[in-house]
Design a protein that fits this description.
The protein is of the alpha+beta class. The protein is 29% helix and 11% strand. A two-stranded parallel sheet has the order 1-2. Strand 1, helix 3 and strand 2 form a beta-alpha-beta unit. The protein is globular, with a radius of gyration of 13 Å.
């Protein structure tokens, strides 16, 4: 959770997005297909409605719990943990 979005209730907000389920769904997945919405720069990563500093927008700009799952999947291939050539994330923007 970035910058000003780290409010006292951020853990509850993440839990309400079924974060544990989302993480477990992508932890060992070979391929991930997602349907979600793009996060506008300068909007919060939970709802995409509230203004935040533009530098707080995650690099992977998928909103809500779907965005967290995508990021956890992509993180597996960072820093040499897994072969980046095996990263297969397919995104459909339903906005």
């Amino acid at each position: 959770v970035l910058g000003s979005q780290r409010t006292p209730d951020w853990r509850t907000r993440v839990a309400e997005m079924a974060a544990r389920r989302n993480f477990l769904q992508v932890r060992y997945a070979d391929i991930v297909y997602v349907v979600g919405w793009r996060l506008e720069k300068g909007k919060d990563q939970f709802t995409g409605r509230n203004d935040v500093s533009p530098h707080e927008t995650p690099a992977l700009d998928v909103g809500g719990g779907t965005g967290w799952a995508c990021q956890w999947y992509v993180d597996r291939f960072a820093d040499g943990r897994e072969d980046p050539a095996l990263c297969k994330l397919f995104f459909f923007d339903d906005a």
